[in-house]
């Protein structure tokens, strides 16, 4: 049994699929390069919303692909309390987080090869 994972979500208040060794404060914020859809009931500031090629509201990204709300000095969200629901649902250390991190590492390795 992997001792770094909680035995159950009830025991630790976490989803059983969460890897607690992954912390945003020690990550390269790879999730901040994903397309993030903004829903009508999100409180995201208008100046951070763009439209994609299908007319859907998305978080504005900078020319280098990073989310415009990311504070590049701290690598943290500058609008954390107002972030879209999609960001709220993206669990730190969850399955989606681990997949994005793994894909980013694979891409980096491929570029270096």
How many DSSP helices? 3
Structural category is: alpha+beta
Bulk shape: globular
Q: What kind of sheet is the major sheet?
A: 2 strands, antiparallel
What's a concise summary of this model?
With 113 residues, this protein is an alpha+beta fold. Helix content is 24%, strand content 9%. It has helices at residues 9-12, 85-89, 95-112; strands at residues 49-51, 57-59, 70-71, 76-77.
Overview of the structural elements:
This protein is of the alpha+beta class and 113 residues long. It has one domain. The chain is built from three helices and four strands. A hairpin with a 4-residue loop joins strand 3 and strand 4. The longest helix has 18 residues, at 95-112. The relative contact order is 0.18. Mean pLDDT is 80; it is low at 1-13.
Keywords:
alpha+beta, two-stranded antiparallel sheet, 113 residues
Topology at a glance:
Layout: H1 9-12, E1 49-51, E2 57-59, E3 70-71, E4 76-77, H2 85-89, H3 95-112
Antiparallel strand pairs: 1-2, 3-4
């Amino acid at each position: 049994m992997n001792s770094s994972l909680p035995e159950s979500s009830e025991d630790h208040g976490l989803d059983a699929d969460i890897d607690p060794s992954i912390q945003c404060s020690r990550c390269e914020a790879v999730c901040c390069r994903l397309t993030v859809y903004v829903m009508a009931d999100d409180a995201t500031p208008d100046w951070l919303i763009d439209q994609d090629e299908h007319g859907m509201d998305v978080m504005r990204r900078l020319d280098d692909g990073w989310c415009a709300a990311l504070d590049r000095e701290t690598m943290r969200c500058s609008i954390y309390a107002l972030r879209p629901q999609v960001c709220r649902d993206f669990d730190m250390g969850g399955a989606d987080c681990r997949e994005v991190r793994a894909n980013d590492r694979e891409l980096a390795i491929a570029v270096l090869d």
